[in-house]
Amino acid sequence: MQPETIEHRARLCRIARHAMVEYDLEPDFPPAALAELARLGGATPKAASVRDLRDLPWCSIDNDDSRDLDQLTVSENLTGGATKISVAIADVDALVRKDSPIDGHARQNTTSVYTAAEIFPMLPERLSTDLTSLNVDEDRPAIVVEMAVTSDGAVIGSEVYRALVRNKAKLAYNAVAAWLDGAGAMPKAMSAIPGMDQQIRTQDRIAHQLDEFRRQQGALDLQTIEARPVFDGDTLRDLAADEDNRAKEIIENFMVAANGVTARFLDERGFPSLRRVVRSPKRWDRIVELARQLGEAVPPEPDPRALQRFLVKRRAADPLRFPDLSLSVIKLLGSGEYALEHPGEEGPGHFGLAVADYAHSTAPNRRYPDLITQRLLKAALGDGPPPYADQELSSLAAHCTRKEDDANKVERMVRKAAAALLLEHRVGERFDGLITGASSKGTWVRIFHPPIEGRVVRGFEGADVGDRVRVRLVDTDADRGFIDFVISR
User: Which secondary-structure segment (H or E) carries 402?
Assistant: First the structure.
């Protein structure tokens, strides 16, 4: 059978599995992990220190098709005008024990890998979508991060503890956002729970306040457009833009706040932690030049507050092109990494979020650093020793950074394969685009319609990140994830 006659989904699955192996990621669970899985039952904590919070109006907000639910949220008004926000995080460690066969597979891949054709979960689906997922109408053990937030968005108090929780409403980002914006009806799952509508409005308000507070500290206001595949059966028809919305911002802001509380909690208890860091950008000079080209000025040395002011002005001045500027800035900021931080140390922090203390902790079903952090939290809560030695944590930090990069490469390769399938009949056409990468390794461009990235193979001399160009498509190769352009002069 010729490649062009193979159904798109099957072809992309084959490409995805090949990419997983190429980047030393395990596409399937080993027999020992499957045997362990067959022996597992549910987990219900009995310890006196575990609080029973099943009666609270918890809800989850996630993608429409998400089944691995990592967190629930709930709000409560406090005296004095503050609001308590509680984030319940699935207690994955209750069933996935350190150094077990299932843990070994998770430790190797370190993350779930989401491709256009197939998802490669970090944990077996019976766990991540059932036994350790915070599913609706199911009692589940959790780690709760509780925060008191003032009307100006400052976190003035926090607590971390173990609890038993019950999801009352499984909500989806798009439906909740449409309702909040007055563009859609109240979701049925929301209307079925008395008072859940007010819960979501309160959470929306507090998330906005948290966001505004971080913006004042220099957190960057960035907007990107992610392309997701649209299938008709097993045939790829399009790549559609998946944009941010108010419901996503609720969860994003609560997770940033909870991750900061987690990092500080471990530090106060004298525990080491894995921090998520984004260092000061090495290509700040190019950000300065991009601002100058737009008639703005940012200082010659990295300054997140100055960069944020510049971004706010550009969003207001040119909202249609702001995602393109955001993409350029993100590329120039560089990628994040995991780093061991000892108690009392002052690490590099997270430049983009403008926070000094930040540990990934809110997605243990799909991210291994979060599971590591959860084990550290439970040890600290139980007054036990850290479950990881410093040398092991340092090694894990480097490994998680590498494997996250490998997973991103797999996802990117499959996205490019899908894009190549869409473009294979458009060779010779011209497109407007934006230079997204320029180094000794190559020059890259993202065209606007459809939002697809490819390599510039000719005419790239002098091009740099953020430049707008006119390009011509000269070749595609879906199996290799290649999309080649030349710059039209």
Answer: helix 390-423
Return left, alpha or beta for 422; rule: phi > 0 is left, psi -120 to 50 is alpha, else beta: alpha
Residue 430's alpha-carbon distances to 132, 226, 423, 427, 477, in angstroms, are 49, 22, 12, 9, 18
| 109 and 240 both lie in a single domain | yes
State yes or no: pLDDT of 1 exceeds 50: no
Q: Up-side HSE of residue 3: CA atoms within 13 Å toward CB?
A: 12
Q: Residues 94, 45: contact at Cβ < 8 Å?
A: yes
Report the C-alpha gap between 58 and 60 in whole angstroms.
Answer: 7
User: Do 343 and 471 have their domain in common?
Assistant: no
User: What is the distance between the alpha carbons of residues 179 and 247, in angstroms, rounded to a whole number?
Assistant: 10
Burial profile 417-451: b = 16 or more Cβ within 10 angstroms, e = fewer: bbbbbbbeeeeeeebebbbbbbeeeebbbbbeeeb
Q: Domain range for residue 43?
A: 3-279+336-418
Q: Does 357 score more than 90 pLDDT?
A: no
168-217: pLDDT as tens digits = 999 999 999 999 999 999 999 999 999 999 999 999 999 999 999 998 88
Measure the CA–CA gap between 16 and 287, rounded to whole angstroms. 35
Kindly give, in sequence order, each residue whose CB lies less than 8 Å from that of residue 150, ignoring residues fewer than 6 positions away. Answer: 81, 82, 156, 209
In 18-40, which positions are buried (b, 16+ CB within 10 angstroms) versus exposed (e)? ebbeebebebebeeebeebbeeb
pTM value? 0.89
Q: Is the distance from CB of 271 to CB of 260 less than 8 angstroms?
A: no
SS3 61: strand
**Where does a domain end: 361, 395, 418?**
418
pLDDT of residue 318: 84
Structural domain contains residue 289: no
In angstroms, rounded to a whole number, what is the distance separating the alpha carbons of residues 172 and 121? 20
In the block, which residue shows the tokens 């906005």?
208
